[in-house]
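Deliverable D4.2, example record:
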Amino acid sequence: MLDLTPATPLLASAAREEPAPPSAKQVEKIAHENNKLHKRLCRQVGQAIGDFNMIEDGDKIMVCLSGGKDSYALLDILITLRQRAPINFDIIAVNLDQKQPNFPAHILPDYLTNLGVAFHIENQDTYSIVKRLIPEGKTTCSLCSRLRRGILYRVATELGATKVALGHHRDDIMETFFLNMFFGGKLKSMPAKLQSDDGKQIVIRPLAYVKEADLTRYAEVKQFPIIPCDLCGSQENLQRKQIKNMLREWEKKHPGRVDNIFSSLSTVAPSHLMDRNLFDFEGLTATGIADPNGDIAFDDEPCAVPTNTVSSVIPLHVTE
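Output generated by the structure prediction step:
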């Protein structure tokens, strides 16, 4: 008689076999790539700090730590750069515990204590305020963000912080630019450096040149104890998700396009836009002197087909 019993036990046994450990060469390659990533992040953060004069001698930097990959990486890299910097500055990590349900309150204090960095946990029940004021099903992020910002500015003053460091990265800046353009009718994004609402601190974004993909990988390498950002049950910002998908699709189909757009944020020609507050169109007169910002600015056609095979992508600072 034919045995029709399925041979699943053998397959299941094979599936349970442990994968072969990486070879010495693979381990070396992984370590090399991780080291390159760390160097790149340090270089890009250092470049942003230098370009915008974010940190000065004697500063006390309040690093806002949410428990997400970006703020963990920001703190980690600033600690590294402080060890190498020719100036002296202090770092204090601050977390705002907003009393969201199921928030693991022990994770950040444990992590920061083991790290040996000064920290402060601010306890404020903004969750109840937001839930009381925002109708069920509506996005709570906007009000939550305003409340959080006001509290963090107050804490910065109480701690004597001169700079408030936020973990927004290059992708955040790009997404905000398109969100403001598409839905707000403004050419506006997240600046790398600005004055706080109350005028008492300078807010800095040292990750301004760093790609989110690199931060995601760095978080895996460093094994940061990530706290999920959806504890409050708020809806995802669908407009931002839409913009994120658009940029991802552009980068896939047209490599270098997103880099060029990001570079354009720091290469602005007010005379070739239409904001009368930024350029005196009304008072513009013919001077009889050739102006490089005049009509000849159109001589370089940005959509022209390249005449050679050299890449036309504008590099963002130093490449590998």
